[in-house]
Specification:
alpha/beta; eight-stranded antiparallel β-sheet; eight-stranded parallel beta barrel; 21 helices; about 25% strand
Length: about 775
Amino acid sequence: MIKQLILTGLLGLLIGSAGSATMTAYYTPTDKNGIDIISNPDGKYKTAAIEGRDAVVSIDDTHYMYFRVEPEFRPKAGTDVWLVVNFFDDMPGQIDAEYTSTVKNYYQVSGIQMSMTKKWDRIIIPLEITDFKGIQNGGSDIRFTFSGVLKISRIELHTTKPDIEAASNEERTARLTKSILQLPQNGKPKKGMRYVYGDNSLEVTAPHRRYEIPFGGNRNDATIKLYKSLGATSVETYVTWETCEKDGYGKWDWRLWDKQFEVLKANDMKWTPFLIVGPAYSIPNWFRETKDHFPCRCLECGIDSKIESLWNPNLKKWITRFLSKFAERYDKDEILESVLVGIQGDYGEAIYSVFGGWTQQIPGDYHAHQGFWCNDPYALADYRSYIEKRYPSINELNAAWGTSYSGFDSIDFPGYGDTLTVFRKKIASGDPLAARQWLDFVTWYRAAMTDLSDWWLAETKRIFPNTRVYLCTGGNGAPEHGSDFSEQCRIAAKNGCGVRITNEGPGYQWNNVLTRLVASSGRHFGASFGFEPASNIDINTIPGRIYNATISGSDHLHDYSRNIISSEERMDVQRKAFKYLEKTKPVVPIALWYPNVAMTLDNAAEFGKFSNGSAKLREYADHDYIDEIMLRNNALKRYKILVINNGGVMETSDAELISKWIKRGGMLIAMGSDEFVSVEGTNEPEKILFRGDSVSGKYGKGSAKRVADLLEMSKLLSEGMAEFGYPVIDMKEDGLYASQISKSELLYLNTTTKTVNTTVSIDGEITRYSIPPSGITKINLND
C-alpha cells in the first residue's frame, strides 16, 4: 500500500499542485525548485530549444542523465514517490529510471516504451522505498538510462500519485507499431548469413520485487517488429539457470521465457537463447547452499568468488539437467536459430572472471578481478596431472624449471599472493627457467578452459542435434583470461559447432585486431564464427562492423539493439550498409604472425606492439593471423606471405616450421631490427629464419627479409602480391580499406567523409576507382 509522504523540513513549503496530487519539487532548464541536473562523465547534457520548448539534451553518446534532489526535499527513507517526466518522443527504445532506494543505490524501474511520435509526451514513474541521500555519481539521487539521445523539458517529484493523463505502455506499443510499419524494410541478409539482435532487458529477482537490467528478454511485440524491419533473423536473450529454477529444486518457472517464445513465434522471428550455467548470476541461491556448489578462488588473494570453479566435479550433471529441461520445452516449432553456450567467468564467455560488473546485481557482490582462479584442490590435481603428461620425468621438469620437486605429486603453482608477484618479476627480468615454468602454467590454465568448452559443446550438440551451437568467448587473449582462440575454434569444429567472439568496440581498425584470430583459425579449422560488440559503439562503427563480418567470412553478426535503434540516423546508416552483410569466402594471401608465446611472457608490451602493428598494416593490406597453434596444425600452407611486425620470443621448433614453409616458396617479411630468441634465450630462431643471402633473402624456393618501416614493407608486399598473381591494391594510409571477398570482387570501406581515389593492378594493368565517403562499396574486377 502506498504510504503518504512526510518530507523532511518541508511542512508548509509545498510549491503547487497538479490535479488532486501535491507537487513537491520540479526542474526545468529555466526554473527549478528542489531538483537540479548534474553533469557526470557518463552523463553529459546541453540545453536546446525543441518544438517550442526549452530542454536538456544528452550529448557525447552517453546513456545517462543525472538529477539531484536537494536535501530539504528528500523524503524519508522507505517512502514512495511519483516522478513525472516530460520528454520528446523520437526514439524507439526505452527510458528507465535508477534511483537510490533502501535496497540499493541504483534501483532500476521497468522501462517506458518510446514510440517515435516526434512529439512531446509525458510519463509517470513510481519510485518505491526511496532513500535519497546524494550517493549516486556526482551526488545525484536519480538517473535516467536510455538508448539514443534523451530530451527532457521538465521533471516533477510528487508525494501522491498525480491525477494527470499519461499513455500506458500498451498504448505506446501500439503507437510504436504504427511508426515501425511506416519504416523502410531491410529484408533478410543474404543466404548463409544470420543477423542476431540482443535487446535491452532481463527480468531478474531483486530483494524487493522483480526489476529489469540490461541484455535479456524483450517481450514487446512492436520491438520485435522493429528488429525484423532492420533485417534481424533472431533475437538473443540471456537464459540463465537462475531465471528458470530460482525458487528451489524442481520448482521450474518458465513464464518469462514462455512469453519470449510466444512473441517471437507470433512475429515469425527465430530465437538465439544464451544458455548460461557457471557464472555467479546464473546460479540459483538454493544451489549455493548445497554440497555440490564449489566456488573458484584466486591465487592472488585466496578469496572465494560466487562463480563456480572450472574444476567443480559436481556441476556437469546440473548443466546437463538444465540444458535438457530447456530443450524439452523449447526445441520445437523450428524457432531456435542457434544456441549460444555460457560456460564461465562473469558473463558466460569461455574466459575466467575479470571484473564482475552488472551481473553482481543478482547474486550480490562477489570477489572479482583479472587473475588466476585456480586456487583449489581440484585445480591443483589437474595441473599436476597435466604437467606429468608433459614431462617424461621429474628430473627433466626440474631441469626445465630450475626447481627441486621430489615428485609430480609435490609440484605447485608458480606462486600465491606476493610470491606470485615475485615470480612474475623473475619472468620480466628475462629468467629463461621462470619463462618456461610460466608458459607451462598458462598453457595448462588455457587448456583447462578449452577442455570445459569441448565438453559443453559436445553435450549441447547431443541435446540440440539439429540446432547450430556456438561457444561464447571474449577478451584479448591475456594469460589471466584463459582463452586460447585457435584451440577454441579447433574444438568447435571437431564438435560441428562455432564460436562467437564478443570483444568488438568502436572503430573498424580495433575490431579487426580483436576478431581476426577467431576469423583466421575458424576458417582454417572449419568452425563457423560471428562477432559481437563488448560495449556501446558510435554511429561511424556501424558500417565498419558489417564490413568486418563480411570480409572475415563470418556466418553471423550480433548487434545490441541500443547501438542501432537509438536514433533514426543510426538506423539509416545501418540500412545503407546492410545490403553488404553476406557470407563470403575471403581471398587473403597475407598472414601476420600472432606471437602467443611472446605475449604470454609479457602480455602488456607485446600485445600493444602487435595490435598497433596490425592496425597500421591493415591500412596497407588485408591480412589474417597465424599463431603457434595454427602453425603446428599446418595453417601456413594457406598463405603466400608471412609478416612479423616485431621481434620477440619464439619456440625454436616453430621457427623450424616457418623455415620449411619458406623453402617451399613462402615469403617472410619481418619489420624492425630485433632478433628472434628462443624461450631459453638463445638466438637459434634468428639463425633458422634468416639463413639465406643477406641481400636478396633467398633460400630454397622462398625468401626471408627484414624491412625498416611500413613504406619498405608495402613495396615488398606489392611485389609479392604481383608475383603470386593477386590483385595489387593501392597501399596508402588514407582511411580506405580493401578486401578481396571472392575471385572477382573487392569490398571497400571508406572511413573518411571524402571520396577517395584508388587503383587496382592486375597483371600490370591498372584500373582507377573513386570510392564514395563514409560507407561500403563493392567492386567487380570483371567489369
